[in-house]
């Protein structure tokens, strides 16, 4: 074993600069027996930093873990590398070959490698490119290869292990994106997760940047380029066992801590990209690597399958937009353009923040005005006719007192016709309500913000909510009832990110999203309506509701001054 060779850091490869790599206090009894450990046990050890104390143990752990990764049958091994490298480079100690085209825009860190190690990484990348022309964009590959080389016996073993990560075929598990389309979908998925799990940081970024996606597209750079090596290698420990999902966790934990840091300094104007990079480089002054992992695993994400499905939805949206090859992201990640956007209710900057709350796969597209009371009049039937055929939509409302609020509505208003004319709720868990003036705030589905409220409790399929269309509907039971959508209907229409099977709802009144009849429209139900607007589009009411757990969005009883519905321009 290479750890027995004379070295000041046993366990590290010959390609490591001994002066750069952190010195660990190796102990004779730290090797342990990893062979009999289950994956669950190994995950626990990695999270606790069991092999962070020993280069030897880390090298053993990496080899054991990677050999256990399920991958494609014809994944090349060390001997394939020796054959290909021999043909490409002969006995050259250096390579003059240009780096593969798929590394455009890649993270290219050296970490603790020596000059020979940097050359070896380039050779491995050229060999992978030669063997796999299907890889068209792979910015994370150099960082993964470099980290792997620190603890590989030789370049051939490093190549084999890297290829196993590239071609992992475990269900709903991925390590490295192979194409520009998949990489961009991953960045969008991180944006969706940040929107859900880091609302304060998300709002800070949205208000400080014209292109929020451009900020989130750097999320892998934060982890593998900006953080110090002792943090990167701890991240790599858990990444090998848990795949890309754990990178989302860690980046979210960093984003939360970044927002706390910015708030503590009281800065009003910041360059978000620069300050994020500075924060990552200076992470030692904010939290230890142990604390970072602790906070990361304290975030309650959805399952690996659900995140994979969200990524597939984002990938589909990019394909619909015509994005398949590398292109400048501003060509397709459209922000709300000040020159093209004109609303009588909100400013361009306010709409940009609202747009930043919307799932990434929809916010790819520009807003298009579907209905406006100032142009189309105060007619509910006109409202329906203008909105039908569009999903999702954004409703904006301004009261006679100047208050501004609204809702993101995931389903087509045409859904109201599908229950035989009976008034019933429809929509999905991606719906949310918000306020713009006097303050900007978003209120999501209660089981997204507070998943602990979802208990394993049986729900009556006949549970209903009183209709707000009767005078006594808000105070006692009425003969006019609104049915709640059945769970299987919601599941079929729900985004994969919010499958209802994740939520064993104690009350169906907490899943009332949208309702429309000839008497008016309702958004949010259970104990009250987040928004109710009458058939004349003149009068409305806003109350606390169980679906969004929101306070009244404006004065409880209000008069509508202006109302707009915005759709998404997909062509």
UniProtKB/TrEMBL annotation:
<dbReference type="InterPro" id="IPR000195">
    <property type="entry name" value="Rab-GAP-TBC_dom"/>
</dbReference>
<feature type="domain" description="TLDc">
    <location>
        <begin position="344"/>
        <end position="569"/>
    </location>
</feature>
<comment type="function">
    <text>May act as a GTPase-activating protein for Rab family protein(s). Involved in neuronal projections development, probably through a negative modulation of ARF6 function. Involved in the regulation of synaptic vesicle trafficking.</text>
</comment>
<dbReference type="InterPro" id="IPR006571">
    <property type="entry name" value="TLDc_dom"/>
</dbReference>
<keyword id="KW-0472">Membrane</keyword>
<dbReference type="GO" id="GO:0045202">
    <property type="term" value="C:synapse"/>
</dbReference>
<protein>
    <recommendedName>
        <fullName>TBC1 domain family member 24</fullName>
    </recommendedName>
</protein>
<comment type="subunit">
    <text>Interacts with ARF6.</text>
</comment>
<dbReference type="InterPro" id="IPR035969">
    <property type="entry name" value="Rab-GAP_TBC_sf"/>
</dbReference>
<keyword id="KW-0968">Cytoplasmic vesicle</keyword>
<dbReference type="Pfam" id="PF07534">
    <property type="entry name" value="TLD"/>
</dbReference>
<dbReference type="Pfam" id="PF00566">
    <property type="entry name" value="RabGAP-TBC"/>
</dbReference>
<dbReference type="GO" id="GO:0012505">
    <property type="term" value="C:endomembrane system"/>
</dbReference>
<keyword id="KW-0770">Synapse</keyword>
<dbReference type="GO" id="GO:0030659">
    <property type="term" value="C:cytoplasmic vesicle membrane"/>
</dbReference>
């Amino acid at each position: 074993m290479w750890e027995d060779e004379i070295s000041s850091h046993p366990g590290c490869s010959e390609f490591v600069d001994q002066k750069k790599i952190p010195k660990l206090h190796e102990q004779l009894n730290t090797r342990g027996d990893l062979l009999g450990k289950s994956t669950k046990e190994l995950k626990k050890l990695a999270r606790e930093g069991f092999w962070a104390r020993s280069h030897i143990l880390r090298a053993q752990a990496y080899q054991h873990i990677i050999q256990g990764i399920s991958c494609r049958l014809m994944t090349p091994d060390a001997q394939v590398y020796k054959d290909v490298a021999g043909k490409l480079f002969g006995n050259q100690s250096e390579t003059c070959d240009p780096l593969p085209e798929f590394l455009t825009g890649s993270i290219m860190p050296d970490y603790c490698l020596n000059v020979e190690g940097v050359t070896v990484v380039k050779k491995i990348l050229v060999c992978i490119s030669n063997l796999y022309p299907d890889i068209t964009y792979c910015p994370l590959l150099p960082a993964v290869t470099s980290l792997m080389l620190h603890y590989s016996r030789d370049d051939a073993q490093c190549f084999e292990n890297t290829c196993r990560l590239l071609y992992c075929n475990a269900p709903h598990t991925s390590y490295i994106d192979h194409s520009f389309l998949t990489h961009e979908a991953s960045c969008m998925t991180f944006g969706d997760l940040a929107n859900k799990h880091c609302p304060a940081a998300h709002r800070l970024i949205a208000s400080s940047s014209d292109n929020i996606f451009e900020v989130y597209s750097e999320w892998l750079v934060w982890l593998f380029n900006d953080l110090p090596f002792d943090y990167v290698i701890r991240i790599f420990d858990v990444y090998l066992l848990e795949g890309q999902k754990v990178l989302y966790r860690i980046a979210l934990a960093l984003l939360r801590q970044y927002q706390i840091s910015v708030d503590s300094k009281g800065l009003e104007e910041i360059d978000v990209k620069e300050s994020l990079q500075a924060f990552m480089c200076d992470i030692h002054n904010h939290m230890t690597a142990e604390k970072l992992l602790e906070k990361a695993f304290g975030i309650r994400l959805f399952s690996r399958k659900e995140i994979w499905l969200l990524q597939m939805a984002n990938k589909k949206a990019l394909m619909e937009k015509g994005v398949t090859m590398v292109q400048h992201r501003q060509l397709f990640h459209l922000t709300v353009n000040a020159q093209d956007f004109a609303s009588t209710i909100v400013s361009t900057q306010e709409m940009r923040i609202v747009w930043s709350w919307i799932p990434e796969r929809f916010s790819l597209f520009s807003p298009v005005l579907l209905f406006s009371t100032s142009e189309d009049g105060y007619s509910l039937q006109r409202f329906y006719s203008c909105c039908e055929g569009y999903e999702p939509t954004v409703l904006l409302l301004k009261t006679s007192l100047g208050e501004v609020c609204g809702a993101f509505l995931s389903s087509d208003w045409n859904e109201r016709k599908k229950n035989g004319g009976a008034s019933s709720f429809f929509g999905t868990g991606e719906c949310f309500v918000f306020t713009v003036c006097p303050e900007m705030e978003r209120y999501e589905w209660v089981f997204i913000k507070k998943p602990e409220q979802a208990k394993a409790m049986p729900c009556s399929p006949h549970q209903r909510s009183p209709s707000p269309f009767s005078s006594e509907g808000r105070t006692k039971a009425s003969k006019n009832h609104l049915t709640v959508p059945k769970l299987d209907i919601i599941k079929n229409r729900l985004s994969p990110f919010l499958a209802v099977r994740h939520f064993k709802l104690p009350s169906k009144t907490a899943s009332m999203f949208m309702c429309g009849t000839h008497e008016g429209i309702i958004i949010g139900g259970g104990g009250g309506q987040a928004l109710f607007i009458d058939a004349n589009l003149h009068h409305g009411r806003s109350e606390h509701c169980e679906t969004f757990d929101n306070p009244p969005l404006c004065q409880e009883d209000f008069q509508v001054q202006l109302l707009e519905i915005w759709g998404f321009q997909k062509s």
